[in-house]
UniProtKB/TrEMBL annotation:
InterPro entries associated with the record: AAA+_ATPase, ABC_transporter-like_ATP-bd, ABC_transporter-like_CS, MacB-like_ATP-bd, P-loop_NTPase
GO CC, any one term: membrane protein complex
Organism listed in the record: Acutalibacter muris
Family statement: Belongs to the ABC transporter superfamily.
Name assigned to this protein: ABC transporter ATP-binding protein
Keywords for the protein's UniProt record, in alphabetical order: ATP-binding, Nucleotide-binding, Transport
Transmembrane segments: none
Length: 252
C-alpha cells in the first residue's frame, strides 16, 4: 500500500520578481516500508521536494497524498498536527534547543502531541528507551554542546521517533558527520526501516543511498531515473558499485 503519492507536483519560488520553477510536474509513489534516497546535483530541487511532500512548505500546484489524504487541501493547523503526529524529521543542522537537556529535546514532540496522552514520567521513560536503543543513554542529562555530532544526530533520530511516526523525512541526515558517525546513524535508520518505518531521505553520499531500497535521481526539478535496490545483493560493496555505475550513466 502506498503511504505517499505525489501527482504533478510543481514548486515555484519568486525571488526579486524572478520566477524559479524548481519542481516541474513531479510524479512518484512511496510504498509503506520503503526506504527511498533522493539524489541529484546541487540545486536540482531535492530539499525542496522533501519539504513540499512533507507539508513543511506549500505547493505551487499538484497533489501530495499522505496516507490517502491530500495535504494541499489542509489548513496550517491540520498540517502542523499531521507533521507532529504522523511524521518524523531529521535534518543535517539538527535543530536542538540550547536550553534543554538532550532527553528533554528528545521528548519535546511527545509533550506537544495530542496523540500521546500519557504522564510526563511515561514520556521520559519512552525517550530513555530510545536513547538506550541507540546507545546514547549516558548523555541524557547533557547539554547539546556537551556531545559529539554522531551522538547528537542519534538523539535527533530518537526525537523523530517519539510520536511513532508513519514516515521519517530526513534531509542529509549524515551530511555533517564523519564516516564512522555516518555509518552508525545509517545503521539505526536501516534498523527502524526494517521494523516498518517508511523513510525518505536526501543524500549526496552513494554509501548512504546504497543502504536504501530505492534511489530517485533528480535533475533540474524532474525525476530523471529510479533505481530499485531491493533485489540487489546484500553485500554493501556490490550495492555501492551497482548504484555508482547507474549514477554515472545518468551523468552523476
Ligand atoms: N526558500 C527558498 N526561496 C527561494 N528559492 C529557494 C528556496 N529554497 C530553495 N530555493 C531554490 O530552489 C532551487 C533548489 O534548491 P534545493 O535546496 O531544493 O536544491 P538541492 O538539490 O537540495 O541542493 P543541494 O544539494 O545543494 O542542497 C535552488 O535554485 C534554490 O536556490
Amino acid at each position: 500500500m502506498n503511504i505517499l503519492e505525489v501527482k504533478d507536483l510543481c514548486k515555484t519560488y519568486i525571488v526579486n520578481k524572478r520566477q524559479n520553477n524548481v519542481l516541474k510536474n513531479v510524479n512518484f509513489m512511496i510504498d509503506e516500508g520503503e526506504m527511498v534516497a533522493v539524489m541529484g546535483p546541487s540545486g536540482s530541487g531535492k530539499s525542496t521536494l522533501l519539504y513540499a511532500v512533507s507539508g513543511m512548505d506549500d505547493l505551487t500546484a499538484g497533489e501530495v497524498n499522505f496516507c490517502g489524504k491530500n495535504i494541499a487541501g489542509m489548513s496550517e493547523r491540520e498540517l502542523a498536527d499531521l507533521r507532529l503526529d504522523e511524521m518524523g524529521f531529521i535534518f543535517q543542522q539538527m535543530y536542538m534547543l540550547k536550553n534543554l537537556t538532550i532527553l528533554d529535546n528528545i521528548i519535546l514532540p511527545a509533550t506537544q502531541s495530542k496523540k500521546q496522552r500519557e504522564p510526563r514520567r511515561e514520556t521520559a521513560r519512552r525517550g530513555q528507551d530510545f536513547m538506550r536503543r541507540l546507545g546514547i543513554i549516558d548523555i541524557a542529562d547533557n547539554d547539546i554542546n556537551e556531545v559529539s555530532g554522531g551522538q547528537l544526530q542519534r538523539a535527533c533520530i530518537c526525537r523523530s521517533m517519539m510520536n511513532n511516526p508513519k514516515m521519517i523525512f530526513a534531509d542529509e541526515p549524515t551530511g555533517a558527520l564523519n564516516r564512522t558517525y555516518s555509518d552508525e546513524v545509517m545503521e539505526e535508520l536501516v534498523k527502524l526501516n526494517s521494523e516498518g518505518t517508511t523513510i525518505m531521505l536526501v543524500t549526496h553520499d552513494v554509501k548512504v543511498a546504497a543502504k536504501c531500497t530505492r534511489v530517485m535521481y533528480i535533475v533540474d526539478g524532474n525525476i530523471k531515473g529510479e533505481y530499485d535496490l531491493s533485489g540487489c545483493s546484500t553485500q554493501i560493496r556490490e550495492r555501492e558499485r551497482a548504484l555508482n555505475n547507474w549514477l554515472l550513466e545518468l551523468g552523476w
